[in-house]
């Protein structure tokens, strides 16, 4: 990632649950340059169901990466971000999708149910992603709240709890 792209990262967090307790840690920006590097970094965290990485960029889009063992699952909130951002482009590549053709086609890409077993099912994720009035940090705060670590997430990114 270029220096400019690194500066545009709003936040990068890892969340994992051990013995029923959630932990949220900030990720170093050098591990978020692409999906492979991010996945590798997430594997170092312990966790009953793997680790979840949440990265928001430029108040524009987010990427959720979930690793568990050798499995990596991804959700990109807006496929058109792949035209401008290396992290989003690597997510599209990882998913084996063609690059977006229409920049007005702002749709998610990837696994809407990647957090289903933790409490955020595909239908709920789809409804959340359809809300064009929410910023990525607000969407991810909602995801974190549904998974059970909303307060930890809000504290880590500087949001006030509702």
UniProtKB/TrEMBL annotation:
It comes from the Bacteria. InterPro entries: tRNA_Adeno_NH3ase_assoc_put. This is tRNA adenosine deaminase-associated protein. It comes from Nocardioides mangrovi. The lineage of its organism: Bacteria, Bacillati, Actinomycetota, Actinomycetes, Propionibacteriales.
């Amino acid at each position: 990632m270029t220096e400019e792209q690194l500066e545009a990262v709003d936040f990068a967090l890892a969340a994992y649950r051990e013995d029923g307790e959630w932990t949220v840690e900030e990720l170093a920006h050098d591990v978020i340059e692409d999906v492979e590097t991010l996945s590798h970094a997430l594997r170092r965290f312990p966790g009953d169901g793997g680790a979840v990485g949440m990265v928001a960029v430029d108040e524009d889009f987010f990427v959720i990466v979930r690793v568990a063992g050798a499995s990596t699952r991804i959700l990109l909130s807006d496929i058109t971000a792949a035209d401008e951002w290396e992290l989003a482009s690597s997510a599209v590549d990882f998913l084996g999708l063609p690059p977006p053709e229409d920049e007005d086609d702002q749709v998610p890409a990837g696994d809407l149910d990647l957090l289903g077993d933790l409490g955020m099912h595909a239908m709920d994720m789809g409804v959340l992603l359809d809300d064009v009035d929410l910023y990525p940090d607000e969407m991810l705060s909602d995801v974190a709240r549904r998974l059970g670590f909303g307060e930890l997430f809000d504290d880590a990114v500087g949001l006030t709890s509702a």
